[in-house]
Design goal:
Number of helices of chain A: 31
Helix content of chain A: 40-55%
Oligomer: heterodimer
Shape of chain B: globular
Number of strands of chain B: 16
CATH topology of chain B: Alkaline Phosphatase, subunit A
Strand order of the largest sheet of chain A: 2-10-9-6
CATH superfamily of chain B: Alkaline Phosphatase, subunit A
CATH architecture of chain B: 3-Layer(aba) Sandwich
Distance between the termini of chain B: 11 Å
Radius of gyration of chain A: 32 Å
Number of strands of chain A: 16
Helix content of chain B: 25-40%
């Protein structure tokens, strides 16, 4: 069962609404039915105006008109009745301010004598009463026409009808606000008249007071050239081409092989192809070489590294064990390695989600076995040598719940965002004007996550004796060990000691210091044992400037029925069971939509983490087909990637057909995307032949890639060139308090341009004595070959005739071949082609 | 005339107002503290004896004594208030932007200088300079001007041996190779072209480089600012303003959070602050830049009137002192007053929003305009209607 707001959107039936038109509201206006929605339409109760928590200039309204009776009280009782003057209605501040007769910071909102004015005056004249709010509760809202196709420049009028709890219906068009999602396609005026402005499709969000309803429209391109006869590769293309046909927009041609290889390699593995790989691929004449290459790429380690990073963006491996920042880097590494192992073994996505969401520390073992595991990890932390494979083999990811804010309302926001593609943040304080969620929806969902014991400080009561003893005695013993170590190092510095003996002393001191460290740092590995705890009877509540709200129900998002749980039941299990139902409206869709957005820079629903009936998909049938196929294929992520990567849509050229100029929403060509921070660094290193020097506490083996960095880099690493590059190229900070895919920022900035043009480290990489250029100068003598190699390593293609001529001329005119080729590589790194996937 | 530049000298933590700009020598010893006030070049205005050069320049600045966040028990976080003009935290949504981010968004600088530069540690009890709702494109360029090997400084210096003609020759090569994605009419290509052009302009132009070469400043001038990294940053701020940079932020000394040994800390910090800020104001004035440059020196809050057992002063939010100069602020002026213990405002209380509105007013930026967050949520630039601090304006 879905709740009221779904039918509300769905009631948008064809045909003109059946208007049992009540008396003109101007004759007999009701506060909650007419006046408050008028406030909403005029924007009076918006957050930036009187809907603000502190009101505005002494006058406050409930945000978006959530509470008509409260609004009535504020309007009438406060400010000594000057706002509302029933004896001389025209002198009411309400009218004088709104019409700008008396100076109003919000400007003039209505004209004296207009229809809005008449309505308000009529209400004032009739005594400014509060009506029965319940009678005017909306039971259905319909807009007509709900679907419309029109040509450029054409207009049509929307009509909106509301049905109320008291059984009456009314045309409320005059009281509604209208908003077009894509203003390049259409415009709508205050009366609800829509005008087609550009080719494409979009939706109009209609709001009557708090209630929304959606109308769709399509504007095809004029012109009668025949639609090209392009063959779909698979079902993805069928849907995309069908829509393009409806819009009369032609798809782009296919991209060439070199472009495809670089594109797919970067998107699947985060690394470009090597020159040999490019040559082999170009020489391969088999017709299915692209499909074979896709399979090969999905089998490479880079695929697991890339998706471990993508999942880490939303699962956020940081802020472990409350305050113990000291163990953070090792824990982040373990978290990442666990995710990477699951991606590498292609764990079905539903199982992956279950193993994160239902994680327990014991993983089905005894407490003693778990304690052994933790003690081992504590020792590894102290020695700064985490054995990552051990944690990666665990069944469940208990570190997810060892993070700050993993449980409760904040944790619920993250679950909703990461696994359901829902944005519930705003519902913490109020209902979101662009969404359907209310506070009660969020809190009732949060109750499923209130019985997990999450991150906490270790305390002696819950610690196993072995660790408790260490916690108590550890620091004292550590102090002694450190003193001993200091004595040894002091002694070693003495000139009378032989160098060999001094070295031995230093080594011994180091061992002592390590032991001391284990004694103090070791037990800190103990967070709380993550487990279900039925004794925790607290329920979710939120306090905001708008007041405190609480729910004691367990209700899943969009469901009407509440669930009941015995103490021993872990409510998280009900969440996972619900997610794994084939008809779950969010779980599979959120994943396929995110995957789509990864390849196309925008989701079928966009932004990709905002599934909502008020944010309709560009291709609803495609989204459904992908989600259905994903479920039918047992949530096989590689099936999903293959479906998208093998499509003609993905393999199109970035050069749009002339009929498709400016289109972003219909995937008529391949969208240009700036490479993500980690990929960009890895691509630079591959081009220049450099290896990244990682700070030791990132626990990466030599030769590792930037893509493999887990979590956020620690404070002491912030000054490193790596952290700096991550920051300026928009690697997400993975801030636990922000749930948004937009945290990864793909926009270009001036500092990025400066980095590529002139960062000292990048300059060094290009000119390094053991770098790519230097090697080519020694190993290859022919300038043409050298230039070709540099093109292949840097932009993954052979130089064109003009490229080759310009490059050779430049190298010849340079003081040395080395300098000339360095400049060539610099030039290519600073092209659009290099930092974009295209 | 609207102000064209801003220099913020941030005193992270809460500098003790009663030991600096709002002294109460007649209060009991456990409140008045160790220092004595001295007269300034404006009759009736006194400041702490540790700031003699600011005393000689009182005709060029205003002291706001009646501003505060109206809260006695106050924890750190005032940076979010004072640097954004918006007291309420946005909660889970990204923070309000600092004045400099707003300038970077709404009024970017001419092509050969950056709009917003911040020196040093921008996390020192300061908020809004990054991770705010305007997104990273309006973030400052952050670096240590005194650190010759610093990241950004390194990026602004063209590589050795690459003179301007070689630079241009290389750039010509790049242009001839950068043809693959031309004519695609994609906004991202346009955006990258624009930023790259600006970056190359910065590299080509000696303006910013020269401005950052603090070592080129005559020794006598440099030493007036104090022989320490903080003084050098204030000096660099002046040089950047001269070069045309609209907004420079620097924090001055680490934590002004003197819960213990307040007077010892003041003896170390106040003379340095005195030298740097007085020199900045004098130099801007001498160069005719002060009237179009807002200078503000402030921290998160004031400190408790009563000195605690550790010779410290604790957090106190009901009042604090803020120094403002130039860009339309009066000289030789004190706004408001506090009671005999410098504990509560007794005259002309102004909220943080008034301070923010006054700064935007001087910059000619409408504080009532709506800006949109990355997720399209609308924010009014300054949330609440509050009066301007008119007494401080020319």
């Amino acid at each position: 069962m879905t709740r009221l707001w779904f039918p509300l959107a769905a009631v948008a039936l064809l045909g003109t609404p059946d208007l049992t038109r009540a008396a003109d509201p101007v004759e007999k206006p009701l506060f909650s039915r007419h006046v408050v929605p008028l406030f909403s339409r005029l924007g009076c109760n918006a957050g930036a105006c009187h809907g603000s928590v502190t009101g505005q200039n002494g006058f406050r309204l409930s945000l978006f008109g959530a509470s008509p009776s409260q609004d009535h009280a504020w309007l009438l009782r406060e400010f000594a009745g000057r706002r509302v003057n029933p004896f001389e209605p025209e002198k009411s501040l309400l009218l004088e301010k709104a019409t700008g007769v008396v100076s109003h910071v919000g400007g003039q909102r209505m004209a004296v004598g207009g229809r809005d004015y008449q309505l308000l005056r009529s209400w004032l004249t009739r005594g400014a009463k509060l009506d029965r709010v319940e009678d005017s509760r909306v039971t259905a809202l319909r807009v007509s026409p709900p679907q419309q196709t029109l040509n450029l420049g054409q207009t049509y009028a929307l009509k909106v009808e509301a049905a109320f709890a008291d059984g009456t219906k009314e045309d409320v068009t005059d009281l509604c606000s209208f908003e077009v999602l894509d203003p390049t396609v259409a415009a709508v005026d205050v009366s609800g008249t829509v005008t087609a402005k550009g080719v494409g499709d979009t939706a109009v969000i209609v709001r009557y007071g708090y209630e929304p309803v959606v109308a769709h429209l399509v504007v095809p391109r004029a012109g009668n050239e025949p639609f090209p006869d392009v063959k779909p590769n698979n079902f993805v293309d069928q849907h995309v081409l069908a829509k393009l046909k409806r819009l009369n927009i032609h798809p782009a041609g296919l991209c060439d092989d070199a472009t495809f290889l670089r594109r797919a390699s970067l998107d699947v593995t985060g690394l470009p192809p090597t020159p040999d790989e490019v040559r082999r691929f170009l020489a391969d004449k088999s017709p299915d070489k692209r499909a074979k290459k896709i399979d090969e790429l999905l089998g490479r380690p880079g695929y697991a590294a890339l998706w471990a990073t993508k999942f880490s963006d939303v699962l956020k491996p940081n802020s472990f064990n409350a305050n113990y920042g000291l163990v953070e880097p090792a824990e982040a590494r373990r978290f990442y390695e666990w995710v990477r192992a699951r991606v590498a073994e292609n764990t079905p996505y539903d199982e992956f989600a279950a193993r994160v969401l239902l994680a327990t520390s014991r993983d089905g073992r005894t407490r003693e076995e778990w304690v052994e595991e933790v003690m081992a990890m504590a020792e590894e932390n102290a020695l700064l040598e985490p054995n990552l494979a051990v944690y990666a083999k665990r069944k469940t990811l208990d570190l997810y719940w060892q993070r700050e804010n993993a449980t409760g309302v904040k944790g619920t926001l993250q679950v909703a965002h990461a696994f359901l593609g829902l944005r519930l943040e705003c519902a913490q304080c109020h209902r979101h004007p662009h969404d359907v969620w209310q506070q009660d929806d969020l809190l009732s969902f949060a109750n499923f996550f209130m019985r997990v014991k999450g991150a906490n400080y270790p305390d002696n009561k819950t610690l196993p004796p072995k660790a408790a003893e260490l916690m108590k005695k550890g620091p004292e013993e550590a102090k002694k060990l450190r003193e001993e170590a200091k004595k040894l190092t002091d002694k070693a510095k003495d000139k009378s000691v032989k160098p060999d003996d001094a070295a031995k002393m230093m080594a011994e001191a180091k061992t002592l210091e390590m032991k001391a460290r284990m004694l103090t740092e070791g037990p800190k590995r103990f967070g709380t044992e993550v487990q279900h705890n039925g004794e925790r009877a607290n329920f979710a509540s939120v306090s905001s400037p708008l007041g405190t709200q609480k729910s004691e129900a367990f209700r899943l998002p969009g469901e009407t029925q509440s669930l009941k749980f015995a103490k021993e039941d872990d409510p998280r299990e009900a969440v996972v069971a619900w997610m794994r139902k084939p008809d779950n409206p969010y779980f599979a869709k959120a994943m396929v939509n995110r995957a789509w957005a990864h390849y196309f820079g925008r989701g079928i629903v966009d932004p990709p983490d905002h599934l909502s009936s008020l944010n309709p998909p560009s291709h609803p049938e495609l989204l459904d087909a992908l989600a259905k196929g994903f479920v039918e294929n047992k949530y096989d992520l590689k099936w999903l990637h293959r479906a998208i990567l093998n499509s003609r849509t993905y393999q199109q050229s970035a050069r749009p057909h002339e009929t498709a100029k400016g289109d972003r929403r219909n995937f008529a060509s391949f969208p240009l995307r700036r490479l993500p921070a980690e990929v960009l660094l890895d691509v630079i290193n591959q081009a220049t032949g450099a290896t990244e020097a990682f700070p030791p506490r990132l626990f990466l083996p030599p030769g590792a890639r930037a893509m493999e960095v887990a979590g956020v880099t620690g404070a002491e690493d912030q000054r490193a060139a790596l952290a700096y590059a991550f920051q300026i190229f928009g690697r997400p900070a993975r801030n636990g308090l922000v749930q948004c895919d937009c945290e990864r920022d793909p926009s270009p900035t001036i500092v990025q341009a400066l980095y590529l043009a002139n960062h000292p480290q990048l300059r060094e990489k290009i000119a390094a004595a053991n770098g790519r250029v230097a090697k080519l100068v020694t190993d290859v003598s022919d300038d043409v070959k050298r230039v070709e190699e540099i093109f292949l390593w840097t932009v993954g293609r052979m130089p064109s005739k003009d490229d080759l001529a310009a490059s050779l001329e430049y190298v010849k005119a340079s003081p040395s071949a080395q300098r000339g080729l360095e400049d060539l590589m610099w030039s290519l790194i600073n092209t659009r082609e290099f930092s974009l996937n295209h | 005339m609207t102000a064209e530049h801003v220099v913020v000298v941030w005193l992270g933590g809460g500098p003790p107002h009663q030991d600096m700009f709002d002294m109460k020598p007649d209060a009991p010893k456990e409140i008045a503290g160790e220092f004595k006030p001295i007269g300034t070049n404006v009759p009736g205005i006194q400041v702490c004896e540790l700031m003699p050069r600011l005393a000689r320049n009182a005709d060029k600045y205003t002291i706001l004594r009646s501003v505060g966040i109206k809260s006695e028990t106050w924890e750190h976080g005032g940076g979010q208030y004072w640097l954004t003009g918006n007291p309420r935290k946005t909660g889970v949504t990204p923070a309000y932007p600092m004045y400099g981010n707003v300038v970077a968004k709404l009024r970017p600088a001419p092509k050969d200088v950056p709009t917003f530069v911040a020196f040093g540690d921008i996390d020192n009890h300061a908020y809004g300079l990054k991770q705010n709702y305007l997104g990273p494109t309006a973030d400052p360029i952050v670096f240590q001007p005194e650190d010759a090997k610093g990241e950004v400084k390194g990026m602004l210096v063209p590589p050795a041996g690459l003179d301007l003609s070689a630079f241009d020759r290389r750039e010509t090569l790049r242009q001839s190779l950068d043809t693959q994605l031309r004519g695609l009419d994609d906004p991202i290509v346009g955006g990258m072209d624009k930023f790259q052009q600006t970056a190359f302009d910065l590299l080509r132009s000696p303006k910013l480089r020269d401005a950052l070469a603090v070592e080129k400043e005559p020794l006598k001038v440099a030493e007036r600012y104090g022989k320490n990294s903080h003084g050098r940053r204030v000096l660099a701020a002046r040089r950047l303003v001269e070069a045309g940079v609209p907004f420079v932020y620097t924090h001055f000394e680490s934590n002004w959070d003197h819960h213990g040994q307040n007077f010892r800390a003041c003896k170390e910090k106040l003379p340095n602050l005195d030298k740097a800020v007085a020199s900045l104001i004098e130099d801007l004035h001498d160069r005719g830049l002060l009237e179009k440059t807002v200078v503000m020196v402030l921290g998160e809050m004031g400190r408790t009137p009563k000195i605690n057992k550790d010779a410290g002063r604790d957090h106190w939010g009901t009042c604090q002192s803020v120094l403002v100069a130039g860009g339309g602020f009066k000289g030789g002026c004190v706004v408001g007053a506090t009671d005999k213990h410098a504990a509560y405002v007794t005259d002309k209380y102004y909220k943080v929003e008034s301070f923010g509105r006054t700064i935007y007013h001087l910059l000619g930026i409408d504080p009532d305009q709506t800006l949109y967050a990355l997720d399209n949520r609308p924010h009014r630039l300054i949330g609440e209607d509050t009066p301007l601090i008119k007494e401080a304006l020319v």
